[in-house]
């Protein structure tokens, strides 16, 4: 049943516009409700069920909770309509098969605007029963009449019901039934003519008769607590126990009169807060004392009734009393609805993309066709994050734009809706609102981080906020809590018109607190903390960039990020180009620097060089971080084969004497090696130490000499050094180079070394190192593989795509080794020629000489001179021996 949306109906002069209360999906919630209700019906119809049992656990309650605007009230109304009339059940909901008594639904809106007090709750439940059963409920009716006459002297209940509109809704059944109940009891007590004005005398006589066990009141004698309730004070506390009498009366109805009431309590969050639970306590009495009535609560927050800590504030608490309320989430498919382990706290989730489209399709129509075109529907659906309230507000904005004579465009829905802020904040305390705005600055948080960001000295407001459904919880995350994406976006971007809105200064102050708190968490962490480092960098960089904060702890964190050589992305989204115009603050420059370093494993080195050059030219970073940008720019130049530019940059960093000076000296050693000046490279390498990765550089120098055993030892020591220091990236790189060296000498040993290298690269993003391991695999298989050409071609394409052109000569050398082992002179000559072309600028030219050594060929006169560590003849003999030994194994 689609109701009329009056707001939309009166929002346009176009009479053709159809404005329906769109309802979408919620099939899962319907199925959960049906299963729970069926379990309840089985439970109350079982032989051992006793409606007067005050100790048995209660399973007559189902809770749907979710953020404001998620569709809880709509779901509550639809449930009531579907139970009242099968024709009103949405088409997508399956048809349930109810076994047992007739279901009588009753929905009570507890919203403040509905002005529903506790008296109205109790009276309305009785009215619904009166309309459905058509007979008195003497025990309850007499107690209620006594209560009313004492609490509302001079105001007959009938007149109150008429003025409140309840008689119009439910008819005259209750006043007639109450009068009949009074007359019946008066007659049994031989008090003929007793009317409402003498209810006090009647109840007194009834209590005496019950105490004396007279046969004249035997019909009520089974209600063991009736006399006590009739003697109790007539206040709200006593009224909250009267539902016990109604439950007893319902249980003794004859079979043909039996009913199954379903009471839907909507907008439960409006009955109070976590401190003032008076109304909640009274309503809990109703639910507990009527175990034969099924209750469905819809509200923003989970019910805490299963929390033992609330004992004293509420009368029935703990997981034993409320077994279905103790856990989060949906019931498992195999759990029976009335199983004590079945969970009855259901978080109402966002609409799926299909549901969003359906909602917008049917929300506004003209001549039966959707008013919002498909393209705009897709845009609105995506930006809604599945929140129905956003979809509804978007429909109203659509009508407003159209009313102004314009055609709504996607750009009209770029902003968020201020109304979302008001709806989100409406039932939060001032402290909770303050915390909510604070944590909207964070992608994720824990309790200490939220408290520090809010600048408060106690956790209580944070703990209360965590109970709200717009706070998501992921137990496996480093920071387990995060804010609903749309709520967070709205708080950060939409115009805030609330009384306690924040000024720009308030936001900046909160950002500074958040930034400092994140830095403290990183600094105070002990033990391996790579995961924490990346998480802190991501949030810290975002805050510093947005609010133009000082770098502070980010400087040291950036050095830690670089020293581990792992290169996870540290920014939410990669930047397309190094645009110097966008670099306005040191934080912007650091974001661009670390983004470039993380992305260089996934993009062409030319892009990396462009980004880093923009950072260097901007000159925004402090000197030590500027050296970092310059060093990695020099490395990018080396990978691109720009040796002169690389050498200039490395020399500047080495001369600067900063943290990367040893690495820059290593870079100079590499450049000397690339140029074929091995003695110079060795001289520099011998003074690098661990900071300059001395052992790995020595291995890089020794294997071109054909001394692969010594090189393998150097690499092994480099790997062990990195492992002792917990540097995963360097460990994997050293192992990859060890596998490469051993692949020339011993395929069997190399196989296990390559396997280890792949294992050490797990969860690391080191593109060049991974390609080195693949080249080692080609060398290991040289001479016998029938797919060397195809494998080499695939690697060549990958290397060129990544811009790692410095690896191409090494790949070509692996092909030369393969042809030399197979003694295929023609193919070897062609491969050497390709290698000469690749190294025509002098870098890696010595690899072409090594290829000639492999095939026992002379070096061409125009070859670039190479300064070997030993005589050329010694080097030639070693490489030729490696080839002949490989030939002997095939």
What does this structure look like?
Helix 34 packs antiparallel against helix 35 and helix 39 packs antiparallel against helix 40. Helix content is 56%, strand content 5%. It is elongated and about 135 Å long. The longest helix has 21 residues, at 504-524. The N and C termini lie far apart (81 Å). It has 5 domains: 6-25 and 353-414, no CATH class; 32-115 and 260-350, Rossmann fold; 136-252, no CATH class; 422-659, no CATH class; 700-888. Strands 3-4-5-2-6 form a 5-stranded parallel β-sheet, with helices on both faces. It is mainly α. 47% of the residues are buried.
Topology:
Layout: H1 6-9, E1 17-19, H2 27-45, E2 61-65, H3 72-84, E3 102-109, H4 118-133, H5 138-151, H6 157-163, H7 166-170, H8 173-188, H9 199-211, H10 218-221, H11 226-231, H12 236-239, H13 243-251, E4 259-266, H14 278-289, E5 294-299, E6 345-347, H15 353-363, E7 364-366, E8 369-370, H16 374-384, H17 388-403, H18 418-425, H19 430-439, H20 447-454, H21 460-466, E9 471-473, E10 481-483, H22 485-493, H23 504-524, H24 530-547, H25 554-563, H26 586-599, H27 605-618, H28 623-639, H29 643-656, H30 661-674, H31 678-685, H32 694-702, H33 708-725, H34 728-745, H35 747-760, H36 767-780, H37 788-802, H38 808-821, H39 825-838, H40 845-854, H41 872-888
Parallel strand pairs: 2-5, 2-6, 3-4, 4-5
Antiparallel strand pairs: 1-7, 7-8, 9-10
Overall pLDDT score: 85
Question: Which radius of gyration do the C-alpha atoms yield?
Answer: 39 Å
Uncertain segments are 328-341, 573-580
- Strand order of the biggest β-sheet: 3-4-5-2-6
Summed up, the helix count is 41
State the end-to-end distance. Answer: 81 Å
Q: What kind of sheet is the major sheet?
A: 5 strands, parallel
Write down the domain tally. Answer: 5
Shape: elongated
Total beta-strand segments: 10
**Computed structural class:** mainly alpha
Q: Approximately how much helix is present in the residues?
A: 55-70%
Strand content: under 5%
